[in-house]
Amino acid sequence: MDKVFLINGPNLNLLGMREPEIYGKTSLSRIVKIVKGLARQKGVKLKSYQSNHEGRIIDRIQSLTNKGFKGLIINPGAYTHYSYAIRDAIKASGLKTVEIHLSDIEKREEFRKVSVIKDVCAAQIKGLGPEGYVKALEILLDS
Fold first, then answer.
1. Sheet containing 44-50: which strands, arranged edge to edge?
2. Which of 7, 16, 89, 124 could form a cystine bridge with 61, CB 3.0-4.6 A?
C-alpha cells in the first residue's frame, strides 16, 4: 500500500476560526478527514501532522526519509516565505512534495507572494481552499 504524508504548519490548527474570509470555515480536522477518506478510496494510507514549531516540522520531514512514503503534501503556513530550513529538509528528503495553500498567496500581501519552498516541490497549489488538498493528493498519486 502506498503511503503519503501530510504536514500542516503554524496556525493551521486554527482553521475554521482564524480569518474565515481568507481561509474558509472548514477546520483542519475536517480537511484531514476528507483527504484521508479519498486516500483510502484510492488504496493509499495518509498520515498527517500539524505543528506550530519549525524544528518539529523539519524533524518530521527528516523522519520520513527511506520509510516508503510515495510523497509529501505540505502547507508550511507562514514558513513558506522564509524557512530555508524546511526547504532544505524537503530537498534532502528526496520525497516528491506538493506545496499547498488555501488562499492564493500571489494575491495577498507582498511578503506572502514569495515561496522559498516552491522550487523544491513538484507542484504548488494555491487559492482552491480545502479542495487544494484533494488536488495535491491526486498529483502525488498520478505520478
1. 44-50, 2-8, 69-75, 96-101, 123-126
2. 89
Residue tagged active-site, from 79, 81, 84, 101: 101
Residue 122 has pLDDT above 90, yes or no: yes
Tell me which residue of 78, 81, 28 sits closest to 53, measured CA to CA: 78
User: What is the pLDDT at residue 1?
Assistant: 66
Residues 6+ apart with CB under 8 A from 95: 5, 61, 64, 65, 69, 71, 72
Does residue 23 have an active-site annotation? yes
What contacts 43, CB < 8 A, 6 or more positions away? 1, 2
pLDDT of residue 116: 97
Instruction: Tell me the angle at which helices 131-141 and 28-41 cross, rounded to the nearest 10 degrees.
Output: 30
User: Cell numbers 516508503 correspond to what residue?
Assistant: 68
Q: Is 53 a catalytic residue?
A: no
